[in-house]
Amino acid sequence: MSEVDFKDHFSQGATGYAIYRPSYPRELVQWLAELAPADRCVWDCGCGNGQLSRPLAEYFQQVIATDASAAQIAEAQPHPRIAYSVAPAEQTTIEEQSVDLVVVAQAAHWFDLPRFYREVKRVARPEAAIALVSYGLLEFESAPVNQALHALYSEDLGSYWPAERRYIDNQYRDLLFPFRDLPTPVFTIETAWTLAELRGYLQTWSATQKAAAAGFFPLATLMPELEALWQKPDEKKRVRWPIILRAAKLAG
Question: Is the dihedral of CA 69, 74, 75, 78 positive or negative?
């Protein structure tokens, strides 16, 4: 599989992705680390700019971080325990039976999953684990703000979302996962944003970028509406994302 074969929705906005995408909570990272049978090596597949790779490096001796997008890897921050490389999920140069944990964050729904799982079985140690992580639609404490964002997501941009987005909407329940699911805790991503930070995040959506390429700019009308609801644009407001998580022991 060559680099041109992968579904590239995020290379164009790689810099914005690095700035505006939310960070994963420490509690999730610690739980992922405890899932592994050892702390020797974790493969962060579809790592983007390393948003999960960096916190994983606090728990593992080595993090192999791969992404099919060279633009995303170019935005990654160097770390002595992280080896970044450009590679598709389905075909890597990782050594056989060398990985204790395979993690995919906000990316598994883009993969050729049967081929990816074959690669997982090739590189994983016998007692290794796998975890697929994603997050759903953001939520603020303001019902009117949430209503406006839901309208943007479902109505204005509805036809611009790639078909694979449905897996996130369904919380990965119908995503191919040929392993015995482990019980998983409930995690959320939480932070506080100004209106400008929210706009930056919305511009990283693949549907927003696809709409812009077609000459449609729904944020131009949405942002004045949100500014009226926000009242003080520089005020930070709490925002959260529900985390979607599926995990398994590969030998299970």
Answer: positive
Q: What is the CATH number of the domain that holds 45?
A: 3.40.50.150
pLDDT digits (tens, 9 = 90+) for 215-241: 999 999 999 999 999 999 999 999 999
Domain containing 15 equals: 3-140+163-191+239-249
Q: Is 106 part of any domain?
A: yes
Classify strands 237-249 and 124-135 as parallel, antiparallel or unpaired. antiparallel
Measuring CA to CA, which residue among 129, 206, 222 is closest to residue 168? 206
- What is the pairing mode between strands 62-67 and 41-45? parallel
Element containing residue 84 per DSSP (H, E): strand 82-86
Phi-psi region of 21 (alpha: psi -120 to 50; beta: other; left: phi over 0): beta
Name which of 73, 62, 68, 32 is nearest 245 in CA terms.
32
In a domain, 41, yes or no: yes
Domain count for the chain, please give it: 1
The rounded distance, in Å, linking the Cα atoms of 218 and 245 is 31
Report pLDDT digits (tens) over 185-201: 999 999 999 999 999 99
Q: Structure tokens of 108?
A: 């598994």
**Segment holding 127, helix H or strand E:** strand 124-135
Domain-embedded: residue 77: yes
CA distance 219 to 228: 14
- Tell me if 53 is assigned to some domain: yes
pTM of the shown model: 0.91
